[in-house]
Specification:
There is one protein chain. By secondary structure, the chain is an all-alpha fold. Helix content is 53%, strand content 0%. α3 packs antiparallel against α7, α5 packs antiparallel against α8 and α5 runs parallel beside α9. The longest helix is centred in the last third of the chain and has 18 residues. The chain is globular, with a radius of gyration of 16 Å.
């Protein structure tokens, strides 16, 4: 069935919405989804996906420092504290901070993972959040969440082996290198969401 969605993808920019299409399973309305996502897409890749490079790590930490409680949201519905908690969930679950279910499947572990980490190097706006990473509560303290994310990013940077990492709830098993790519892409996405 996925063939019909791919059939409507006629340009490089169209390819950018494929993960969202696959995740949402809107096969018959594939063309309309392409049009909708193209109209709302922002194209700002990370300059490097090597989180374990000292310059990249320092850049991510500096951008995090610039996030403030009053940082202006550019899209979406999360508050800035919810966003920080969401990133902590996504990254910290791979390091044992949180125990999230494995909701990955053959598509998310292969096609989606490859497209996001190695082709697009960004998250298409409008892509649905994996259920275990959704943050419903707004009862989060900004400073607490910021400190927690800093701790998780520091621990991530200090890892040395693939074995230091567990599964990602959506992408499944990933190497240390791929976790680093995801960290850069995911943090870049949400830091841009809050004007940073």
């Amino acid at each position: 069935m996925y063939f019909y969605s791919v059939f409507y993808i006629q340009s490089f920019q169209d390819w950018e919405i494929l993960p969202g299409l696959i995740y949402k399973h809107k096969i018959l309305s594939g063309f309309l989804e392409c049009v909708k996502y193209k109209e709302t897409m922002q194209y700002q890749k990370v300059t490097s996906t090597d989180f374990f490079n000292s310059t990249s790590y320092a850049s991510i930490m500096e951008r995090l420092d610039h996030i403030q409680p009053n940082s202006e949201r550019q899209w979406g519905s999360m508050t800035v504290a919810q966003m920080l908690h969401h990133l902590s969930l996504a990254i910290g679950s791979g390091l044992g901070y949180y125990n999230l279910p494995d909701t990955s499947n053959v598509i998310t572990r292969t096609v989606n993972q490859f497209l996001i980490l190695d082709v697009l190097k960004r998250f298409p706006m409008g892509t649905k959040t994996a259920p275990p990473l959704k943050v419903a509560s707004d009862d989060f303290d900004f400073e607490t969440e910021k400190t927690q994310l800093k701790e998780i990013l520091t621990k991530a940077y200090q890892t040395q082996t693939d074995e230091a990492w567990g599964k990602h709830t959506y992408f499944g098993n990933m190497s240390r290198k791929d976790w680093g790519k995801l960290i850069m892409i995911h943090c870049n996405h949400h830091f841009q969401q809050f004007s940073n």
